[in-house]
Design a protein that fits this description.
There is one protein chain. The longest helix has 44 residues, at 4-47. Helix 1 (4-47) packs antiparallel against helix 3 (315-323), helix 3 (315-323) runs antiparallel to helix 5 (350-371) and helix 4 (326-343) runs antiparallel to helix 5 (350-371). This protein has two domains: 4-36 and 315-455, no CATH class; 50-63 and 83-309, Immunoglobulin-like, CATH 2.60.40. Strands 1, 2, 5, 6, 9, 10, 12, 14 and 19 form a nine-stranded mixed β-sheet that branches. The chain has helices spanning 4-47, 267-272, 315-323, 326-343, 350-371, 376-398, 402-424, 429-447, 453-456; strands at residues 52-71, 78-90, 94-108, 111-126, 142-145, 149-154, 160-167, 170-171, 175-176, 186-190, 202-213, 215-218, 224-231, 236-240, 246-250, 253-261, 276-277, 301-302, 305-309. Helix content is 34%, strand content 29%.
């Protein structure tokens, strides 16, 4: 081989390509397991209840306005009745929701899904119910309105366990459905006709027990809406159009409070216009329903806010994040082996590089398989320890001594420790990773600062050119008229 360095680099490039293909296959395995977990979540949602949306209470009344119109002339003259159907709604002026969510874990095979049991106490107050009085649009028309209905809509009615509504001191009889043309899932109670146009207003209270999967959304339809939510789940994800005005998240759970005014939200108008309530989860809903989970645009959706009970130690999510660092692991390990080869004048065969890279790739497959049966931290520790011991043992023979294999194994252990820290961090992962890469680059530059890179790229068998000899100091000739320098020890 005329240029051994270039030949070695070409072989390493092929090895890296093969290892990248292996990492890609491992990533496909992780995605398949993630897809199986999503199917499990959908199966639980189909059997129990999907993500829930709570909206209400509100009052509505369906009305029909009819009038007569004469058509034709002469003997063909006749009277035709025309009609207009519309819905009157009354949103509460004050809406207060106090709710607590108790988490319940459901499992299908190896996969676990977070479900919750929600217990809510809702208080709704209306002022004068003038919005329930129909206004005719045609002179001489006839107006016919159904009885006012108090309704509460939910995302998945199968999740309703118990419900009780009182109007003042009177308990109302609840029935399934809402009789609303858009938000059909929920419960309702009939109100007396006397409440229509009532000037003194109404106060209704709702005690509701509701179960759901992974996410809860609330629509702030009150003139002033106040929601207080608490749960023992320590990893909430707040989303939607409004974040909590106050929140406290600890290892023991979280408490959040929202305070919203109708001046800041269009939820009342959105619901009056019949817009869908959109949620960001795929379980328990479909694109054609009033609770959209597809690609609906914000203009098509009513404003809402939500809480997702996410699992930050989802092994498949963490394993997927870990495999993205696989290329970095291989590159840093190859750099470390190359430094040993360069600084200690060793020769490491490309096949040995391939075996080292294969051991690094096997770590990610071990991590995925073990985390399906053990906690993620234990799985990570077992997989990392096995790979570090294997690589340290192999490096001791590959590099010629135990004193060289142990430092390489310690460096790989440090990489695994850094990766675990990055997986646990969320907001500072980029900063920590970039600082670590900078330190590694600085160490490589310091260690190779005196390497003659031109000498490494010389053809095999070509001797290095000798250094030019130093010129002896010039001594002036004798009797030149110049004083000769005095020798040490002589005057």
């Amino acid at each position: 081989m005329k240029y051994p360095l270039f030949t070695k680099l070409g072989a390493l490039a092929v090895i890296v390509l093969l290892l990248l293909i292996g990492l890609g296959l491992i990533e496909d395995v992780v995605r398949d397991r993630q897809r199986y977990r999503s199917m499990t979540a959908q199966s639980v949602a189909d059997s129990l209840a999907g993500p829930q949306t709570l909206m209400g209470p509100m009052i509505h009344s369906a009305c029909v306005e009819s009038w007569d119109v004469e058509t034709g002339k002469g003997e063909e003259r006749r009277t035709v009745e025309q009609r207009r159907e519309f819905l009157l709604t009354a949103m509460p002026e004050q809406l207060k929701v106090v709710t607590g969510a108790a988490m319940e874990e459901r499992a299908r095979g190896l996969h676990k899904v977070n479900t919750y049991n929600l217990k809510s106490h809702v208080t709704a107050q209306w002022g004068a119910l003038t919005s329930l009085q129909p206004q005719s649009t045609m002179k001489g028309s006839r107006m016919n309105c159904g009885a006012p209905i108090l309704m509460v809509a939910v995302g998945d009615a199968r999740g309703i366990r118990t419900a009780r509504v009182t109007l003042g001191e009177q308990a109302l009889v609840l029935k399934p459905g809402t009789f609303h043309p858009t938000y059909t899932r929920g419960l309702h109670a009939g109100l007396p006709e006397s409440v229509r146009g009532q000037a003194t207003g109404l106060t209704a209270t709702l005690d509701l027990e509701l179960v759901g999967t992974e996410r809860l959304a609330i629509v702030p339809i009150g003139g002033n809406t106040e929601v207080q939510m608490s749960s023992s789940w320590p990893h909430p994800s707040f989303s939607g159009q409004f974040l909590p005005s106050e929140r406290e998240v600890t290892k023991a759970g979280f408490t959040a409070r929202w305070r919203l005014s109708s001046l800041a939200t269009t939820a009342q108008k959105d619901i009056a216009d019949g817009k869908r309530v959109c949620v960001n989860s795929g379980g328990g809903g479909d694109d054609s329903s009033e609770y959209a989970t597809g690609n609906a645009t914000p203009r098509e959706c009513a404003e809402s806010f939500s809480v997702a009970f996410v699992d930050p130690v989802n092994p498949y999510t963490l394993a997927d994040r870990a495999t993205k660092y696989g290329v970095l692991f291989i590159a840093l390990t190859f750099v470390a082996v190359g430094l040993f080869e360069l600084m200690k004048k060793l020769r490491v065969h490309p096949v040995q590089y391939l075996l080292v890279g294969s051991a690094l790739c096997s770590f990610f497959l071990l991590l995925v398989s073990l985390s399906e049966h053990l906690p993620f931290g234990i799985s990570y520790g077992v997989a990392a320890t096995a790979c570090v011991l294997l690589l340290a043992y192999y490096a001791s023979h590959m590099l010629g001594s135990l004193a060289r294999g142990i430092p390489l194994g310690a460096g790989i252990a440090l990489l695994y420790g850094l990766l675990y820290v990055l997986l646990q961090l969320e907001q500072t992962a980029l900063a920590v990773g970039s600082i670590a890469l900078f330190l590694v680059l600085a160490a490589v530059m310091v260690l190779t600062r005196k390497v003659n890179w031109y000498g490494l790229t010389s053809p095999a068998g070509t001797p290095r050119p000798p250094l030019p000899p130093r010129e002896p100091p010039r001594v002036p000739p004798p009797h030149s008229g110049l004083a000769t320098p005095t020798q040490p020890g002589r005057p």
